[in-house]
Amino acid sequence: MLLLRDLSLRYKIPLRAVVLVLITATLLTAVQVPRERDELQRDLEENARLLGITLTQNLVVPLIQDDVWRAFELLRAPLSGVDERAAERLPFALVLFDRDLRVMASSDPARYPVNAEPEALPRFRGIAPWVRASPTLPGARPLVVDENTLALVLPVVADGVTLGHLALGYSRDGMRARAARLVRQSVVYTLALLALILPLTWYWGQRTARPLIKLADGMAQVGACLPEDAALDLEESGDEIGRAGVAFRRMLYELRQKEALEQEVMVNERLAAVGRLAAGVAHEINNPLGGMLNAVDTFKRYGGDAEQTARTLSLIERGLLQIRDTVSALLVEARPSGKPLSLQDFEDLHTLVSADAHRQRVNFDWHVALPDVPLPLPATLVRQVVLNLLLNALQSTPPGKIITVCAHIMGECLSIQVINAGPPIPPERLGHLFEPFAGDHPRGHGLGLWVSYQIVQQLKGQIALDSDESGTGFTVRLPLCPVED
Q1: Which residues, including other chains, have CB under 8 Å from residue 89's CB and lie 6 or more apart?
Q2: Does some domain include residue 159?
Q3: % of the chain with per-residue pLDDT over 70
Q4: pLDDT value, residue 176
Q5: Crossing angle for the helix pair 306-334 and 343-359, nearest 10 degrees?
Q6: What's 136's DSSP letter?
Q7: Which domain-ending residue is among 149, 180, 211?
């Protein structure tokens, strides 16, 4: 299940804005409806009080004259000729009680007959104890008779004498109907407002999220390659998002500078490695040259029959082939190419380091078991890694010892091991061995292993180190996947 925190900002910000609008609208409705309901009840009570005061003033004479018909007309008049909506604001019954709390007249004589006592009247039974307990009423006194009836009882007073009481009965169902209409109206108005606000909220939420999304998309491109400024569509503004975009562009510029510097260091390290091989290569070239010159000198002095000429030409051919192999191996190191790695690359490396190994009286135990077909790895980069490890091993191996070189396919990876029999690396240096300028050998500058580490990382591989009293070994594993040189 996709969590809200995992959603894209293009959805998260608008959704949060929409939820905030919904919560605000709901809270406003929840607060407003009870207030309006209370206002409805206050309005009802105020209208009832005004109607009751008007009627009590007009009912004084009928009470004094005991004019039941006139009292009936006065009570009936407010309820006549009104529609259903207006009837909700009016009492369902008006009942006039005499001084003995018997019905003198009512708006509905069938339900509230003359001379009936309050206890016998439907929906008015609850007012009798309340009125009898306080025969002199200073003014209107509303009370809830039951859950469906709200009554207002007012005294009919003349010259300070209470002649009777007027009861106004209101149905609470009418109040509930008005409250329900109010709720429905509030919901309709809220939905109409939301229908207008939500699209605007979604639009502005999308606009707010768009710069962040573009910035995140640009950051996602930083990995195997660095995006160009022209490919980035970042917001240019003075707010926090705009400043983040400026900082991101500056970071990309510095990363490009760092990448260019690393490439330059790698090239220089490759050439430096070739330079360190120069003496041995010169020796490998000088030996066959000396042999060829001796053969030519002998041929000049003694002339030659066919057999002597053939021996001389054979000697010259072998010397030239040896020089060609040495120079070819050196050219591959000095001039990078985009060809894939092959078994011949390891043979070239063996040729290049053999002279130094012979001069230092170090032997190679060479075990390279690779297929004849090229491997999907860049030859130049892999050769540089192996050459750096070989030169590092030659520097660390005492005379008379052996350097073991193994290369084979292990699953989906090329595994390369270079093990020397030199002294172990101190523990305090192990954690910094792949850092630049971390070496302490007088003939090196500490960049070889750092460059090798950078290349292995570039090829999505791994390089590991194991050093103890028996020797020091480097293991490189490179995934066999097409990688551009």
Answers
A1: 44, 47, 174
A2: yes
A3: 71
A4: 73
A5: 100
A6: S
A7: 180
